[in-house]
Amino acid sequence: MGNTIELDHVSKAFDGKTVIHGLSAAFEDGEFIAILGPSGCGKSTMLSMIAGLERITSGRILIGGTEVQNKAPKDRGCAMVFQNYALYPHMSVRENIGYALKVAGVPKEERHRRIAEAARVVELGDYLDRRPSALSGGQRQRVAIARAIVREPKVLLFDEPLSNLDAKLRHGMRMELSQLHRRIGATSVFVTHDQIEAMTLAGRVMLLNAGRIEQFASPHDLYHRPASTFVASFIGAPPMNLITVTGDGSALRLPDGTILADHGHTGGVTLGIRPEKIVTGAGTLLAKVLYREDLGSHCSLLVQLGGGQTILIASPFGTEIGAFDEIRFHFPTEQIHLFDTETGLRANS
Ligand SMILES: Nc1ncnc2c1ncn2[C@@H]1O[C@H](COP(=O)(O)OP(=O)(O)OP(=O)(O)O)[C@@H](O)[C@H]1O
Ligand SMILES: [Mg+2]
């Protein structure tokens, strides 16, 4: 079985209010999974239930094929890294990393070997005698990670471990975490509300919405084949444009009759197109730019369609376009996503 994790109809209620609704999923041995979603969707609760810090209300959790939902946290073989990693300020890096081993009564020689190995993995070998106060934020975060991996856990659980770091450090730590995972190979579950973190680190991303799975798929599929309008507007920055249209069997039209794209769909539907997939400079659509943001590599243009609805276009040629200019553009048919307007679920294959 290896170190698989299975969530079998897991539910959680606080004071009678359900926050996780019968969630089922399976993580493979050695996989790097991200749990992504907006604030309050249940990410931390889900992770705490895997770790055993929070009891489940119903369902089963299996680690390596064994039911663990009634086991104490220390008997589940998980180690957790939190956003607020709370190192012991009066202890050296070495003592911080080795504390859990000392408490567990691991003999001194083995303790030192394992501390040295964990410090090597996070590249803190030269810092073992320092106090946390003499480390940078990123180095402190690495001590927290070393403290987790020194226990040689079957499963590594991370709850927003990078969100206290500045943007540059976060990028560096992302690459380090990714390499670390390749080196130690523990099944890893990483909670974040940052889509970039989820998309870059994880092999698969579980996107939660109000305690339910919206989509559990590879980063590629989340971006290219979003299962719902929720996923479509959560993944990607700026988010996908969603436009209510009607198909007549050969084209998708706005209420005023304007043809937005050629397509065989018939009936009312929500058309999705990413700002960066709209082609500017040619095409049958013409609109006035209401607002322009120059982001260096491209420009973000807000334009108004017939009928008043606004959409965003990300254009590499944006700098040649002024605010209040009219631009030509078109929606390539192969870039069009269709969603059921009532349910929000994906409607095209
Ligand atoms: N101990 C608790 N008692 C009551 N309600 C709780 C408790 N812990 C969490 N909740 C509720 O459960 C829901 C999910 O919370 P959770 O902390 O898992 O969200 P999250 O996805 O981690 O959010 P964030 O991104 O803000 O950290 C929220 O509505 C929250 O208010
Ligand atoms: Mg949380």
TrEMBL record:
Gene3D superfamilies per record: 2.40.50.100, Nucleic acid-binding proteins (2.40.50.140), P-loop containing nucleotide triphosphate hydrolases (3.40.50.300)
SUPFAM superfamilies noted in UniProt: MOP-like (SSF50331), P-loop containing nucleoside triphosphate hydrolases (SSF52540)
Principal subcellular localisation of the protein: membrane
Domain ABC transporter, first and last residues per copy: 5-235
Membrane disposition: Peripheral membrane protein
Top-rank taxon: Bacteria
Keyword Hydrolase: no
Any Pfam family hit: ABC_tran
SMART domains: AAA (SM00382)
Molecular function terms from GO: ATP binding
Subcellular location: Cell inner membrane
Keyword Zinc-finger listed: no
Keywords: ATP-binding, Cell inner membrane, Cell membrane, Membrane, Nucleotide-binding, Translocase, Transport
PANTHER family referenced in this protein's UniProt entry, alphabetically: MALTODEXTRIN IMPORT ATP-BINDING PROTEIN MSMX, TREHALOSE IMPORT ATP-BINDING PROTEIN SUGC
Family stated for the protein in its record: Belongs to the ABC transporter superfamily.
Name of protein: ABC transporter ATP-binding protein
Species the sequence originates in: Rhizobium lemnae
